[in-house]
Amino acid sequence: MSSAVNWIVLAVAVLAAVVAVELLRRVLRSRRVNGRFSLAGPIVERCTWPGFATAAVVAFNTGYAPGMSGRSVDFAVRQTITVLLIACVAWLVIQAAYAVTDVVLARLNGVEGVGNRRARRMRTQITLVRRVAAAVIIVVSAGAMLFSFPAVRALGAGLLASAGIAGVVAGIAAQSTLSNLIAGLQLAFSDAIRLDDAVVVDGEWGRIEELTLTYVVVRLWDERRLILPVSYFTTTPFENWTRYESRVVGHVMFYVDWTVPVEELRAELYRRLREHPLWDQKDWTIQVTDVRSNGLVELRALMSASDAPSVWDLKCDIREHLVAYIREHHPHALPRLRVEDAPGTAPVPGSPAAPEASAAREALGAARGPREPETSGAPGLREPRSGGGRA
């Protein structure tokens, strides 16, 4: 009878622990608490199920009395409770750490302007550190579970003695994996790349979307994902457009005729930039950067924006505006190729200009009137007329 009472008390204790966690969850979800403490929402979202599991296992471990299941089953029950308790506590600690860091990451994600670069650096480091911490907690928990078994604890001394040789063998076998792990930590704390950095990798422009200890995900401009090992960024050169700041200067190239009014285009560019919301009100100019051998002039228009996507859209808009402006207001400055004949040169026979030249010569001859025939001999001598010679 006493055994049944013990089981009833144990069940009530577990149920009370679960109810207490549910009441705490409801309090944290209330408007008064959730609106005042920003940490309440992430804790409820991440720690609800780990909290239920941990509370139930702790209540069971506290209320379970030795001998309730018999001597043959008692050891197995106690061992199972110990393993479950270690697993639930590790789960709860990991999720609580993620909940706390979620609040910090959410605040850093909203930082714009001058502090954006520092915020992205902190986001990268926090993301990697919490993943490393989660991995360490899992490894330590797994070790604690194994050492809770007496047989494994007896083998611990032998395992520790051979840990040096095993470590060398494991290091050789997992050389690439270890190099990626070390490279991931190096990238996080050397500030080489950060989350949301604009980079050019293998000729592809994109942004760092995800940075882990083993791989990096680059979201390309056309929404493709380029997945590279972390060691790639420590061994291969790449472009980082936002290394020190997110602000980027863009350029637009034009090839126009020599008659283009550069000053007028410069004034029009400045007028359009002042009206554009993506211009950061800093750098701008338009310059003649080259004169091409094909008779065209190269113009380069510079403009700056707060980040790479903004400068891309700004470049497209300015290019479209200036093309329309030149076409409508200065059509004579549109790019063209001229072919002119030098004075006194005759067109090549068979060329398109030869028939026109022949027609022009015939018209000129008709206007001058008939000409006297010339001799086939020396110039200036005329052929004798018939019957007009000397006797």
TrEMBL record:
Pfam families (UniProt xref): MS_channel_2nd
Mechanosensitive ion channel MscS domain sequence ranges: 177-243
Region described as Disordered: spans on this chain: 340-391
Keyword tags: Membrane, Transmembrane, Transmembrane helix
Transmembrane regions listed in the UniProt entry: 6-28, 81-108, 128-149, 155-174
Subcellular location: Membrane
Superkingdom, taxonomy of origin: Bacteria
The keyword Calcium belongs to this UniProt entry's keyword annotation: no
Main location: membrane
Cytoplasm keyword on record: no
Low complexity bias spans: 347-368
InterPro entries the record matches: LSM_dom_sf, MscS_beta-dom_sf, MscS_channel_2nd
Name of the protein: Mechanosensitive ion channel family protein
